[in-house]
Design a protein that fits this description.
Radius of gyration: 20 Å
Helix content: 25-40%
Largest sheet: 6 strands, parallel
Number of strands: 9
Shape: elongated
Amino acid sequence: MRTGGFGGVDGLTKYLRAESIHVLVDATHPYAAQMSCHAVLASEQTDTALLAIRRPPWQPGPGDQWVMVPDMAAAADAMGEAPRKVFLTVGQNELEPFKGVRRHSFVLRSIDLPPAEMTPLDATILTARGPFQLEDETSLMVNHGIEVMITKNSGGTATAAKLEAARNLDITVIMVERPQLPDLEHLDRAQVVTGADAAFDWIVKFDLTGHRTDSMS
């Protein structure tokens, strides 16, 4: 197990070579686009097979009131001029566009307590880690009088209950779209799967000579 960064593409490339890695699995968060780009470049430079886990994004359904925006700055603008109570679930590293906002009040949920200098002026801080249940998400939004929610389209089930709660309560969701991830079609030794189980199934068919025991696709 290794913790911490590799030092960019060069560091990751050196690590793959030094450890004689056969398969590089990109299991990063859908919004960690830089790391995914580094994985592609390092794979190309070392001829290491690349397996990317990209879970499907959430899709709006009947009754959803989604406002799609490209980034956090656009999400801050989309809150509008009228004062609103905002449920902010974007992670503590992405609070910059909201920290100076005066007209809105926030309920901010983060795994860890965010630095005070990054916290919005009028904010209630909740520290919690998913998965979250529908009943709890509904109670949170009702008890705090939430009028709009800002979130990222992470996909998966661990935090999806907040979307159902917002739908049931007619709460607007400002949804920050995913960044563009690198295209893997030009790589001969790359594969995309949608979850950990599929990744495991793919890996067990990969022998230690560095080649798949069946077609790479």
